[in-house]
Amino acid sequence: MIVIPLFFIARHLLLKIFPAFFASHCVQWVELFFCAALIVLACLAQDNARHSFGHSGGFVCPFVPFLPVACILVNTYLLVNLGAGTWFRVSIWLLIGALVYLFYGRTHSSLKNAVYVPTACADEIYRNSSDLL
């Protein structure tokens, strides 16, 4: 979300440009504004608003391909600069998660007894089940 970085940039600029007394009051107003903006964004029916702009549906990423490439590069830089201890702890947690999945999740899954149907038959099953509802 772009609001959070803007919040920190605005706060930093206010603290650098204005005196401390004035900046502290301005920062409070900026914080209040961004919190209000986040609340407004959370309350909007964003899924319904998407359809009114002519999108066919799904997630639309802005500035393709520049933004995804920039995000990949930034995240790669951050991952490369992690210490060996961090990678060791992450590896241990991934191993624990894989073991939990293999020995508990697979045997206690609600999909264990699911019936899988070929895709070719899915339309016919869907039509027949919608008649029953």
UniProtKB/TrEMBL annotation:
Segments crossing the lipid bilayer: 20-45, 57-80, 86-104
Annotated Cationic amino acid transporter C-terminal domain residues: 59-109
This protein's UniProt keywords: Membrane, Transmembrane, Transmembrane helix
UniProt keyword Thylakoid present: no
InterPro entries attached to this UniProt entry: CAT_C (IPR029485)
Keyword Metal-binding carried by entry: no
Pfam families: AA_permease_C
Molecular function GO labels: amino acid transmembrane transporter activity
Family per record: Belongs to the amino acid-polyamine-organocation (APC) superfamily. Cationic amino acid transporter (CAT) (TC 2.A.3.3) family.
PANTHER family per record: CATIONIC AMINO ACID TRANSPORTER 4, VACUOLAR, INNER MEMBRANE TRANSPORTER YGJI-RELATED
Protein name (Swiss-Prot/TrEMBL): Cationic amino acid transporter C-terminal domain-containing protein
Native species: Salix udensis
